[in-house]
Amino acid sequence: MLIILPGHLQVSGVTTWAMRAIAGLRSRDIPAGLVVHTKPGESVPRFLEPYVVGVVRDATPIESLEGRLDGMIPIYLDAIRSLFEQTGEPIVVAPNLHGDCYGAVAAIAQSQPHLIRTAAWIHSDNGYDLAIAHHYEKIIHAFVPVSAELSELTNATLPHRKSDVIHIPHGVQVHPDCPERSSATNRPLRILYTGRIEEHQKRISTLPILSRTLCERGVQHELRIVGDGPEMASLQTATESIEPITLVGAVEPEAVNDHLQWADVWVLASRFEGQSVAMLEAMAQGCVPIVTRVRSGSNDAVIHSETGLCVDVQWDTPIEEIASKMVDAIEEYCAMNPEAFARRAHRFVFEHHSAALHTDALIRLVKQVRSLEARAWPADERPAYSAPPGQAGGSTPTDARERMKSCLDTLAGHRVLIYGTGQHTNDLLDDIDVSPAIIVGFIDDDPQRSGETLAGLPILTPDQIPHLDASDLVISSWIHEKHIWEKRHAIESLGVRLHRLYHNEPVGVDA
Length: 511
Fold this sequence. Notes:
With about 500 residues, this protein is α/β, with parallel strands linked by helices. It folds into 3 domains: about 1-170 and about 355-370, 3-Layer(aba) Sandwich (Rossmann fold), CATH 3.40.50; about 190-355, Rossmann fold (3-Layer(aba) Sandwich); about 400-500, Rossmann fold, CATH 3.40.50.720. It has helices at about 15-25, 75-85, 100-110, 130-135, 150-155, 205-215, 230-240, 255-260, 275-285, 300, 320-335, 340-350, 355-370, 400-410, 425, 430-435, 480-485, 490, and strands at about 1-5, 35, 50-55, 90-95, 115-120, 140-145, 190-195, 220-225, 245-250, 265-270, 290, 310, 415-420, 440-445, 455, 455-460, 470-475, 495-500. A 6-stranded parallel β-sheet has the order 3-2-1-4-5-6, sandwiched between helices. The chain has a 6-stranded parallel β-sheet with strand order 9-8-7-10-11-12, with helices on both faces.
């Protein structure tokens, strides 16, 4: 089996999953390895080196390839051939995280489909994983959602492929006995976050507010934040005056256990997830998870008040409110029996998410998938998910330009905002620019993009809409349109009319 990782090599649940999946397969004498991408000046982390069989070195960031896959294909192909020589059987290839990883595999499947069988992991409820799976359905032999909810979404998106949807929950190392902790009676509560320091998905800015709120309520605590990521500098600034918080930085995966065995509770305020490896690792160490309830794998493992605590929030719930609700949950935890709570969390992971169970499932997948017929990518179709300038990428339906033009024509003379700054919007910028509507800016949920510009116009956050003298807001996304449309009443309460292009057609249905 070959797993491909295009980035996030230091701190990522997907990277941890991939490394341990390869280790598990090798422990059962099944040849397996990783192909990774490194950025200029970046080296393969030491903890990954034993598992890596190919490196796309000093790579152009995969987000900037614009359809150019030549630097990837030979590395992928060499790794595939090497494993093929060891087994004499087709290699199960699992691209991850970006459509162009699939694109390079599709290019190989144009000329040498006999070498490979493709498995598409559905890691997250982000729309993107399923959009890629739909785009490359022709070469995919198995779709592998990591949670029950993602299985339901995959089946709904690809109903004609239900027999090829194989749910494989994540697995982690877990000892039969729950680690012992010192009593929390005469010491501060120990709280831990492990993961990427990132805002859009992880809502990392919740943590400083959470700590301050605990202080205001008189709850003595210590909060360790373990990890690294793009918001590290802003987090350092936000926490420098908060005494209970310690920023640990990035550590190797095996060093995380020391922090988990120290902590009483583990917190996660994500907007969306798949099945958090970090959460399962916490539970395996008897560290009780307190998480936001999202349509994700947390619901597979966190049984409220039994194995953890779930906090009910929405995608756009203010950070201050999320922090307050998480503090409520922490106080609820403190009022319960922490030792019994820890044992229940540990036992659940031991029975349902052990590394051995995960490896068993991977072996069944490999045997099943490599017995299937080869699937070739059509010779007359572009394999790349990204596209050269002037062409539409894989996340943009073929009739997107016509749909956007038609919508903006009906808004001639109106002051209009465009919701979305991703590939879909970039593919349609020329049409947006010449429309008869008065485009006043772009809206993006990621607060880190606020203050940037696109096509000379400002990028703003949804909370700024009431101050922009706009009458209409057009969703420019195929992947995320359904989710944004579900917030219609809240958005229109800000004083704009919301418009959609695809009429809530699900990902997986040609627009």
